[in-house]
Specification:
The protein contains eleven helices and three strands; from the N terminus they run αβααββαααααααα. It is globular, with a radius of gyration of 19 Å. Helix 4 packs antiparallel against helix 10. The protein has two domains: about 60 residues, Arc Repressor Mutant, subunit A (Orthogonal Bundle); about 150 residues, Four Helix Bundle (Hemerythrin (Met), subunit A), CATH 1.20.120.530. With about 240 residues, it is mainly alpha-helical. This is GntR family transcriptional regulator. Keywords: DNA-binding, Transcription, Transcription regulation.
Length: about 240
């Protein structure tokens, strides 16, 4: 039998387009957009728009307000901490699984993504570095063969991206960002299962602390300790 071709539904297309609008800033944080307004902009009826907004609300990108529409959400420090906790819970064990079970071809793909990451960082491209960073993590975790977990991680990254915040170049250079991944690759190349998990955990925790300090201004020692402890528990 011939396989059925899969085409994105109107809801899936609307979800992708609204999400893109949030990420590129054309849909502004804090503003409310009605289903009618979004439908006219995208050229589709209200039904797929409403379904798309429900999905985006589930992802934490919008909040649906009765008789008004969908409000584009910002984020809070506590929400950022939760996002990084989720990343630690998923990425640390998945990276260990990649180190143990990934094929030679899958490891080669991780190596290629790492070298591309290096090239973008050396060129000093903020946008290119951040994209290469995401691609490296995707390649690393793809070796664990768990698509559900990867989808959850994509949603968490979408949420952070929707805020427009990042550590490069505000708090560290593109090269600093790249070199924060060195220990991950060193451990992966020799299939050091525990070493990969430790390196991934340290990297995510380090990025979280830099980003949270950046977005909250100067933190007192008690706040720094609370954040560090809230992340360290998930590494082990």
């Amino acid at each position: 039998m011939q396989q059925v071709e899969k085409h994105p539904s109107l809801t899936e297309q609307a979800t992708a387009q609204i999400r893109a609008g949030i990420l590129d800033g054309s849909l502004e944080v804090g503003q409310v957009y009605s289903a009618v307004e979004l439908g006219k902009s995208l050229g589709v009826s209200r039904t797929p728009i409403r379904e798309a907004l429900l999905e985006l609300e589930r992802r934490g990108l919008v909040r649906i307000e009765k008789n008004k529409g969908a409000r584009i959400l910002s984020t809070s420090i506590d929400t950022l901490i939760e996002v990084f906790q989720i990343r630690l819970m998923i990425e640390v064990p998945l990276s260990r699984r990649t180190a143990e079970f990934a094929t030679t071809q899958e490891l080669s793909q991780v190596e290629e993504s790492f070298e591309h990451f290096r090239e973008q960082a050396q060129a000093g491209s903020t946008e290119g570095t951040l994209k290469a960073d995401r691609d490296f993590h995707s390649a690393l975790l793809s070796g664990a063969s768990n698509q559900k977990a990867l989808q959850i991680l994509r949603e968490q990254r979408d949420f952070v991206l929707s805020t427009g915040i990042g550590t490069v170049p505000k708090s560290r250079s593109a090269l600093d960002c790249f070199h924060d991944h060195d220990d991950i690759m060193k451990a992966l190349r020799i299939r050091d299962i525990e070493g990969v998990g430790i390196a991934v955990g340290r990297h995510i925790s380090n990025t979280a602390q830099i980003l949270i300090a950046q977005e909250s201004g100067s933190l007192d020692l008690a706040s720094q300790k609370r954040i560090r402890q809230s992340l360290e528990w998930y590494i082990h």
